[in-house]
């Protein structure tokens, strides 16, 4: 089989968060199944790490699930094969499996995801959208005549608030560094984030919004973070502030965003994710001149395939021996 090229990533991002699992809590190693359909990259990754691939059966101990949805099929596979001790999910966000994660939270079953694996392309996309908003590109792209109105702002020296402290946030901080920006990270815990001038808990979000030039949403979607940005938050943001969402659509109250843009409460918004998704034809955001929408394309299959393969390879190595799993999911927290 042709070797999958190793992704050319910044080392810290590629590594992700390693969670050494104590020997007593490690899932027993054994045959690994790939469902719903095998992929060359996943097959290569399992074999490159020394894993044994086999069809799903009572002997299966590891399961690599390559569909973002189809949670009912995954539930059936786990119910029918209780010997499975490790499940690898394909995306960074696991909100599509939140009910299943909570239901199947039990000793002897370890979940891992791709969180952190796609940080580089998603952070790059957030960076691109930030530039586009500051330089008024949504308006420029729609223009049909020469404008004499001087518009546009520089990124240099701006205050950027990043909501979320995962791999996307860490990589975005690295990309912002040459521009002399001041970065504030909003996260669940108060643990400082490297490269951020300030780290605050989610409860302090309202304190940091008024001074933000750019707000980048890159958090996990949970029951606690749904509509994290809504009418009260837009009311606190200044009229020159721009909003970028590369996390999940429901992190933002779409109706409140439509109203804020229409009223000029914020300068603009750029969305790679929407609620609902896909955004239906005729939705007011499509014709909002200060809104830029990309169709959940921050990380395309071409970008993610080698990154997921590397995540699978590392976790198969952990599964077979060293227990150093990457991207371990907390089933109760949902990420």
TrEMBL record:
The keyword Oxidoreductase applies. Residues 139-298 form the D-isomer specific 2-hydroxyacid dehydrogenase NAD-binding domain. InterPro entries: D-isomer_2-hydroxyacid_DH, D-isomer_DH_NAD-bd, NAD(P)-bd_dom_sf. SUPFAM superfamilies: NAD(P)-binding Rossmann-fold domains. It comes from the Bacteria. The keyword Oxidoreductase applies. Keywords: NAD, Oxidoreductase. Pfam families: 2-Hacid_dh_C (PF02826). This is Hydroxyacid dehydrogenase. It comes from Cryobacterium algoricola. The lineage of its organism: Bacteria, Bacillati, Actinomycetota, Actinomycetes, Micrococcales.
